[in-house]
Specification:
By secondary structure, the chain is an alpha/beta fold. It has one domain: Alpha-Beta Barrel (TIM Barrel). The chain has an eight-stranded parallel β-sheet with strand order 1-12-9-8-5-4-3-2. Strand 4, helix 8 and strand 5 form a beta-alpha-beta unit. It is globular.
Length: about 300
C-alpha cells in the first residue's frame, strides 16, 4: 500500500486496520506503576520499537506512538515537562522506523487531566500544550495526530484546532463513551456521540470515531450513531477486548481474537472504516482483525 493520505485510502473503499493496546504491552515489558511510559522512548527505545513492529508484523496499516500521556501537563507529574518536545519527537521517530515507508504513523495525544470547567487551566494554556505536542510528533515523522479517549468537547476541540493549525498532519479525534442506565451512550462529561462528533468536525477533524470503554459489540451501536451525523467522514474504532472483569484484583479483558474478529463485518456494516484495538488487545487480536477484513474484501 502506498502512503497517500488516510482519508484518500478510505475514499477509495479501503477498510484499514489499526494497531492494538500499548499500555498493557509496556507493563509486560517491565513498566512499573508510577513509571513514566513516555520516558521509555529515550531510555528503552528498543522495547518501544518492538511493540510497534509487533503490530506492523500482525498486519496493521497504521500504528500509534508511545505518547498518550505526553503533554507537558501529564509529564510535569514526573518532573519531565521541559522534555515534552524531546519525548514526543522520539516516540514518533520510533513508530516511523517500525512503519517504514508504506504504513502510517498516527501519533497519540490523550487528555491532559485538566478541566476548563474547574478553571484549573486556561484555553490558551491548553492550546499551547497541544500545539507543542503535535508539532513535536510531526517532527518525529507522524502522518496523523490521533487525539483520543476524549470526554470533554472543549478540550477535544482545542486539541483538534492546535493540530490542524500548526501541523500538516491529518487529524483524528475519538471519544470514549459508556452506556448509562437508560441504554444511552455518553462520555464521562455527559456528551452524546452525536454532539461529540459534531464538535470534532466543526473544529476541523479529518477522521472521527471512538476508542476504549467498550468492546466491538457496543461499538457497533456507537458507530451507527456517529454515522448518522457524519455520513461522509472516515470513522475509526479502537475497541477494548470486551468489557473488563476484575479477577483477583486485576482487570482482565476477556474477548479472544476470534471473538473480536467475528464482529468485524457487522462493525463495517455499521459504518466503520478503520478498525483496531485498545485495552486488552494484542498482536494476535490485530492479526485476527486483519484476516477478517481481508476475507470480507
Amino acid at each position: 500500500m502506498g502512503r497517500t493520505s488516510i482519508v484518500d485510502a478510505v475514499k477509495r473503499g479501503k477498510i484499514l486496520v489499526s494497531d492494538g493496546a500499548w499500555g498493557t504491552f509496556l507493563q509486560k515489558k517491565g513498566l512499573k506503576p508510577g513509571d513514566c511510559p513516555e520516558l521509555w522512548c529515550v531510555d528503552r527505545p528498543d522495547d518501544v520499537l518492538d511493540i510497534a513492529r509487533s503490530y506492523i508484523d500482525a498486519g496493521a496499516d497504521m500504528i500509534e506512538t508511545n505518547s498518550f500521556g505526553g503533554s507537558r501537563f501529564k509529564l510535569e507529574h514526573y518532573g519531565l515537562e521541559n522534555r515534552t518536545a524531546e519525548l514526543n519527537e522520539a516516540s514518533a521517530r520510533i513508530s516511523r522506523q517500525a512503519a517504514g515507508d508504506n504504513k502510517w504513523v498516527i501519533a497519540s495525544i490523550g487528555p491532559t487531566g485538566k478541566m476548563l470547567l474547574m478553571e484549573d487551566v486556561t484555553e490558551e494554556e491548553l492550546y499551547a500544550g497541544f500545539k507543542e505536542q503535535a508539532m513535536a510528533l510531526e517532527k518525529g515523522g507522524a502522518d496523523a495526530i490521533c487525539i483520543e479517549t476524549m470526554s470533554a468537547i472543549d478540550e477535544a476541540s482545542l486539541a483538534v484546532r492546535a493540530a490542524r493549525e500548526n501541523t500538516e498532519c491529518e487529524v483524528i479525534c475519538t471519544f470514549t463513551f459508556e452506556r448509562n442506565n437508560k441504554g444511552e451512550y455518553r462520555t464521562m462529561m455527559g456528551v452524546s456521540p452525536k454532539d461529540a462528533i459534531k464538535a470534532a468536525i466543526e473544529a476541523g477533524a479529518h477522521i472521527i470515531g471512538t476508542n476504549c470503554g467498550n468492546g466491538f459489540e457496543r461499538m457497533i451501536d456507537i458507530v451507527k450513531e456517529i454515522r448518522e451525523v457524519a455520513p461522509e467522514k472516515p470513522i475509526l474504532v479502537h475497541a477494548n477486548a470486551g468489557l473488563p472483569k476484575n479477577v483477583n484484583g486485576l482487570d482482565i479483558f476477556p474477548e479472544t481474537p476470534e471473538q473480536m474478529a467475528a464482529l468485524v463485518s457487522e462493525l463495517i456494516n455499521a459504518g466503520a472504516n478503520i478498525i483496531g484495538g485498545c485495552c486488552g488487545t494484542t498482536p494476535d487480536h490485530i492479526r485476527a482483525i486483519r484476516k477478517a477484513v481481508d476475507s470480507r474484501s
